[in-house]
Amino acid sequence: MHSIDRLLHFRSQGSRDLGKTIPQMLKKSVEESPDTVLQAFKNEIGSYDYHSYKLVYRHILNLACALKDFGIKRGDLVGLISDNRREWFITDLALLCLGAADVPRGCDSMGTEIRFILSFTSCKVCFFENERQLIKVLDNIDEVPELKDAILFDSPSDLTMERAALLGIRVHKFIEFEDNGKKSTDAQRAEIEAEIEKTEGSDLATIIFTSGTTGTPKGVMLSHDNFICQCEVVHEVLTTAKEGDMWLSILPVWHIMERVYTYFIIALKSGIAYSKPAVEIMKEDINAINPQWIVGVPRLWDAFTQSWYREQKRKSGFALLFFNLAMSAGKSFCWAHDRVFGWICRFSIWQKIFDRIYGFIPFLLLSPFAGLGYLTVIRKLRRRFGKNIKACVCGGGSLQPENDLIFRALRVPLLDCYGMTETAPILSVRSPKKPMSGCVGKIFPSAEVIVVPEKDGVPLASTPLGPGKRGLIFARGRQVMKGYYRRPDLTKKIIDNDGWINTGDLGMLSIANEITITGRAKDTIVLMGGENVEPQIIENAICRSIYVESCVAVGQDKKYIGALIVPRKDNILQYAKDNNVYYDNYESLLESNEIHNLIREEIDRFTDEKNGFRTCEKVAKFISLPESFQIGKEINAKQIVMRHKIETIYSKEIAKLFASRSNSLT
């Protein structure tokens, strides 16, 4: 596929020289801001300790010295099975300093995944967060014949060490490597810095295995330059980010989004504070840190908004009424504001003119009510993010429009972003100064993006489509991966001879070069009548209901669409209480006519013709599931539905959906 000059991205004139590699970028930030806080982490009593760039860099060099003495060298692949924590960052950078590359995975991964990854990459050494992760490997050690050494961040028990020794695995404590590193001399650290200079931007930095939403995980090979090219221009996008800003880290850092933002932090000379993706823990950590930035996934922001609404429902009738009025006025005002001031993705000039006229009167009428509501109610919610918050970042899934509006009403910019592991990953992100709604942001300065015509997920031509035309999204640039590890056949299928990568996503470009995602090409459901249905659009709409936690649409080669629904348990129980619905247990409650009809009404309300849904896109039958989807079982660590696993786990339930038309939509 060839590019068209008028649609190619511009070469940024403001890109910064950060060096060729990630360690070089870190060294440069250390030299320029040695005393700025880089890491904040909890100590043994639960309060935060703060380490400067200079101190963290010394820890990295010391660990690199210890790892070099241990035998790790340039070109080695080293496993790294851990969630976000101080030691992960130190280990990652130490390995990169040596010219090695890490193969990361999170603690939520199943043993089969970890063993497959370590075996496929022939890792001889692997870092584990704790003995629970090591045990996942020991449970079937024959699947990882080349693994010989395990290094644990948390000290293991004697029993686990003895078991590992019997199975041929030498277990080491991370603290011992840190102690050995402290004994390093200036000459030894100088050798590490000399080794840093030998690494080229094209050298491998990491192999990140995709989460397996469609089958066997694939190892995405990412170079230093894949990350550096984004770090060079991030200041042009996150224009309000300043040196010394603190970022709250809550996502699994092995995931590409959290990882690239970790490197952005280094480029911006900011700091990172470690927390956990649980609302109550985050609240405490936000109070302690007062961060300027928080990166999360859609489900996290949904959990925040739901916790607010649950909290308000426990208040008196007048307080609840005032909260609902204030929030309703705030959201409606923001809706009108975006249209009047152009903070909305548009696909034609005429749409821009119409939106301003359409939003002007509501903007004037709602302005005083929204202002009063913010001062008396909403501002208190905003303070939940601390006194210094500049913006929250959302990626790794589809942001619900309702949550987007809530954050707009809070006056906390929610920066939706888009990308894929294979593009390291950022292809677009919203601006913190003008967070455009209806899109996932403007094309990132380091990337080229075009939309081409397609049919059934197959590109029909190389000629890019104009604004507002739906098609396959293709991307190109320095951030595109080196390829899939040991799978050149799969690499050729996704990257063409001109370097364009097929994202597999369907979308459109706006007149301002913003990206709107409309679905996944390979997730498209083709009904028996030949209609193509995008399940994500249906799922996202249904999940707007306060009574629905998760939804998976199914129906390939069937006459109609069915759905697996995970109701939002707290809200269902509250509904039953408010409406005197009697039940024996939660499962029986879901089977009751009252709850079945409630979910039915919610599905119909959000997927009717007024919301733009065709008859073939309406859910004819659904089944309510009592248990939430679990990471590693039905959803991956980015909390994206793994459809192939859903189809296997719930094969009986899916079969029931299409066994008869009783209780279906008529």
Please describe what this structure looks like:
By secondary structure, this protein is α/β, with parallel strands linked by helices. 40% of the residues lie in helices and 20% in strands. The strands form 7 sheets. The protein has a 9-stranded mixed beta sheet with strand order 2-1-11-10-12-13-14-15-16, sandwiched between helices. α4 crosses α5 (131-138) and α14 crosses α16. Mean pLDDT is 91; it is low at 1-12 and 661-666.
What's a quick, concise take on this entry?
The protein contains 23 helices and 28 strands.
Q: Topology, pairings included?
A:
Blueprint: H1 22-32, E1 37-42, E2 48-52, H2 53-70, E3 77-81, H3 86-97, E4 101-105, H4 111-120, E5 125-128, H5 131-138, E6 149-152, H6 158-166, E7 170-173, H7 174-182, H8 186-198, E8 204-209, E9 219-223, H9 224-231, H10 234-237, E10 246-249, H11 256-268, E11 271-274, H12 279-289, E12 293-296, H13 298-313, H14 317-340, H15 349-382, E13 391-394, H16 401-410, E14 414-419, E15 426-429, E16 442-443, E17 447-452, E18 454-455, E19 458-459, E20 471-477, E21 483-484, H17 488-494, E22 501-509, E23 515-520, E24 525-526, E25 532-533, H18 535-542, E26 548-554, E27 561-567, H19 569-578, H20 586-591, H21 593-606, E28 619-624, H22 643-649, H23 651-657
Parallel strand pairs: 1-11, 3-4, 3-5, 5-6, 6-7, 10-11, 10-12, 12-13, 13-14, 27-28
Antiparallel strand pairs: 1-2, 8-9, 9-21, 14-15, 15-16, 17-20, 18-19, 20-22, 22-23, 24-25, 26-27
Helix pairs in contact: 1-11, 2-3, 2-7, 2-8, 4-5, 9-11, 14-15, 14-16
